[in-house]
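Quick one - inputs below.
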Amino acid sequence: MLSFKLIAMFWALSRLIRMADQTYTVASDGETSAEDISKLIPTELAIGMDIGTSKCSVAIWNGSRVELLRNTRNQKLIRSYVLFKDEMLPSGGVSAEVPHGDPEILSGSAVFNMKRLIGRIDTDPVVHACKTLPFMVQTLDIGVRPFIAALVNNVWRSTTPEEVLAIFLVELKVMAELQLKRPIQNAVLTIPVSFNRFQLARIERACAMAGINVFRLMPEPTAVALLYAQQQQQSMHENMGSGIEKVALIFSMGAGYCDIAITATAGGVSQIKALLGIPLGGEDLLQNILRYLLPDFERVCSNHSLENIKSMALLRIAAQNAIHKLSSQTSVEINVDLGDGSKISRSLTRAEFEEVNDEVFVECEKLIAQCLLDAKLTAEDLNDVILVGGCSSIPKIRSLVLGLCKKRDSYKGIDSLEAAVHGAALEGAIASGINNSSGSLDLLTIQATPLSLGIRVDGDGFAPIIHRNTAVPSRKEMLFTTAHDNQTEALIVVYEGESKKAGENNILGYFKITGIPSAPKGSAEICVCMDIDASNILRVYAGAFLLGTQQAVSPFLEVRMPTIDDGHGWCGQALVNMYGSTMDLATIPKKV
Amino acid sequence: MIIRAIMVPNCGNGSICPSPTTTNLPFAGSTGHGRLVSMAMLRPRLLEQRSASRLASRPPAAAGDVGTIGELSTTTESFYELLGIPVSGSHDDIKRAYKQLARKYHPDVSPPDRTEEYTQRFILVQEAYETLSDPECRALYDRYLARGLHYALSARRRFGEELEEKSGWKNRWQDQLVELKRRSTTRNSEDNLSWGARMRKRWAESLAD
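Output:
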């Protein structure tokens, strides 16, 4: 149904549209964001999309409530994969009339877990964990994008995570268009909390390839928070209650990511108090079990022979089923013939499952404790605990979350698998300016930045300028000074992350300020300002002041981030190799 | 003037924009949580602290060059005025006022033609709320206000950070975090490895052979 040509066409088209936008922008007032444009041009209602590591869903506000769309097989939750076949066009789980079975999806011909791969470099542990998947993930560990390929007609054909995601998005888009009988342009997509700005840019690129205008990228648990806010407001109306503030912790764990948000909601306004996430999910639990069942697992996967792919697929299916069953029973029998003469025949208990995945559970506990710390709250402050995502049905996960939050039970009234897409569709309606007479869209979420943003200083130090969990939109600034006597140029290297070492954070871009007044080190003043606007676009302004004044030496530089693309892992080191510390910035010591 | 033009690039119309850099402290004073900065051993001297001392020694007339910028001028407006509440307002009053103003100024709900202007305003409201909703910061701010230096809320971050260290919630959770980290490290040590880690180790060793 869809070819690469079509994708290319979509891409070309969307670029044309973008160019048109830019022209429009310049003509109007120099700084109109994409969002403003979509507000100015009469647009249609944005749909909500939840692109999960394992499953996707699409929903829309139908005028009175949110409705989930179904694929041709009447499914609301659609498996995320794209199958590549010779001479046939690649197809995902959306449009296939006949469902692809697990053996086909795990044959090496299908690419899945795109969300774990997109925007990551080949030194990333998450990419390395993907090397045991049936399709090919090749890493050379030099800080570039990994090589990904699907088996087509006995040949490994290369592709990219963005391309795969774009094909899948086109299918979702077409599915929605057929059902809603109108073209779809705008969408609100949910994203993992831990995604950096580089990954967000890749998601946007995949959307552009699919002809989808990204209205908002919404961290998954904040989409759930929006749904919670709506429900709270409705129950307030019913009970004629005053605007009592309700605080909820949302724990969202799917196949690929574990995310937490703490939200305080009253009168339809939700503040995201803290956001925290890590790339840890059901896929990690599964891999640990695979390794437990077959200690040789990684070695068997690494050679990518047809026989091994087939036997690993059988093992994967068996392990997956076993994990699902262990949510409701305490022991499960595993009988799988690997086809190469070896057989795995044993029982797996829930206790074993929990022991094998102990590390994962400890990580989850740490995440919750840290998130409460960030929000400056204790378990007693929480009114509700909301568990969502595929892993929320795992007894150990439930008990650890509820235990740490000191709650007997989790919040009822939210579907754990549909909550995120529900929230995305609500946001789509709100951001599209839809008003509802019943007031059920009378909602506002004040988002927070999930990662700190700052610059490199004092060698490899990191000076955060906008800290994580700062309410957005936001604008913060800080003064810095020179590291050397008579230094007239300085590099502003922008990073995102929580490490005190800049090099361990994610580099977003860099630029140079010139014309710093000649002075002894530590006396010149360089101002760096960071601005996150309503569309979550990050701009960095920087310039030097004349000595002893707050008059700029020359016009400031304004740089939209991220500025770098592939090979970004190298840039920071390349700058150090080239310039050493000659253009370093230093922090200004506090006057005591 | 140069800075002003640059720092407020989102404004189509300069006459309705505040000048966040020169003397307009709510902008300058928003350098984030001092706690994290100090933890990072970076010790940057925050702009807010500098500006505060400068402002204090500055002739009062200097404030006028910002005060003329119209509706959004903030140098003469206290955080209480910004939120539209009396100085005696309760914590709940502050919260209510903040949420009410957020509903007006937040870019998600503001009229599209005034998004830029309202976004600036939202950031100020946010700053006011963050200051006044923290009892220690508010007490400090009130002291400044009484001396007519309310725009020099400068030192509050530094001050706030010390108070924050002392307060109970942090210690409690920090203990728990330390405990969790200790648990995970002891488990990883020696033969007490978790299953996954043991397997990875064995796999790594088999590769080395």
